[in-house]
């Protein structure tokens, strides 16, 4: 990867807006969850954007996180021992995490791109992906989530209703309000369109 010099003008404005989206309080919550979910073996990052980026950069911590949400024997991501040191291997590891997160149910719009993490372009997007993964884990409630359920918002779930045949037949007898009413005023005695109103005195 090429070294990138400082950005100027509009590029710098855009980058500073992206950096302002980073949430330090959310970082604390996510770090707490990742350590609780994966165990103390993953360590803890230095506080701040850069520390968070460096901690997740090689993809191993993220891979352990997504693997911990699956039962033993069906882990979706292979974690190399020792952790990868070559840049393309690290990026490949992050890409494997992203694929596993999508398979777990994280929607594409919530998933960051590898360069967002690797080059530090948008660490807030990384936070959003981990947040979405946590929300899904809490919502699924399959026994693999470890940590405080109040750390994440539960996603809404469908509420299926099953109606019997007799209930469905009864519904056909009701005239919906969208169709108008069969009670009250009618158009009986109205003149046709385009004709003047007949006023008889």
Short description, anyone?
The chain is built from 8 helices and no strands. The protein has about 200 residues and is mainly α.
Structure characterization notes:
With about 200 residues, the chain is mainly alpha-helical. Helices cover about 45% and strands about 0% of the residues. The chain has eight helices and no strands. The radius of gyration is 28 Å and the shape is elongated.
The proportion of strand residues reads under 5%
Oligomer: single chain
- Total beta strand runs: 0
The radius of gyration computed from the alpha-carbon positions, rounded to a whole number of angstroms, is: 28 Å
Low-confidence stretches: none
Kindly, what is the distance between the CA atoms of the first and last residues, rounded to a whole number of angstroms? 93 Å
Q: In percent, how helical is the residue content?
A: 40-55%
State the major sheet: none
User: SSE order, as H and E?
Assistant: HHHHHHHH
Which whole number gives the mean pLDDT? 81
Shape descriptor reads: elongated
What structural category characterises the helix and strand content?
mainly alpha
Count of DSSP-assigned helices: 8
Topology:
Layout: H1 9-20, H2 24-38, H3 49-56, H4 60-67, H5 87-104, H6 114-118, H7 123-140, H8 165-172
Helix pairs in contact: 2-7, 4-5
């Amino acid at each position: 990867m090429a070294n990138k010099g400082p950005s100027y003008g509009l590029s710098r404005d855009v980058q500073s807006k992206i950096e302002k989206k980073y949430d330090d309080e959310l970082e604390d919550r996510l770090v707490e969850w990742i350590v609780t979910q994966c165990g103390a073996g993953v360590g803890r990052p230095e506080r701040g954007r850069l520390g968070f980026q460096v901690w997740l950069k090689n993809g191993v911590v993220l891979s352990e996180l997504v693997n911990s949400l699956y039962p033993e024997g069906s882990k979706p991501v292979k974690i190399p021992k020792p952790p990868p040191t070559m840049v393309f291997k690290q990026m490949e590891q992050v890409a494997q995490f992203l694929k596993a997160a999508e398979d777990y149910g994280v929607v594409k719009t919530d998933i960051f791109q590898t360069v967002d993490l690797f080059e530090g372009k948008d660490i807030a997007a990384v936070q959003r992906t981990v947040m979405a993964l946590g929300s899904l884990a809490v919502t699924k409630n399959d026994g693999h989530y470890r940590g405080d359920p109040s750390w994440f918002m539960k996603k809404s779930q469908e509420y299926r209703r099953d109606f019997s045949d007799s209930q469905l037949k009864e519904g056909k007898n009701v005239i919906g309000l969208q169709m108008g009413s069969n009670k009250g005023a009618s158009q009986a005695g109205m003149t046709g369109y385009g004709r003047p109103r007949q006023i008889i005195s």
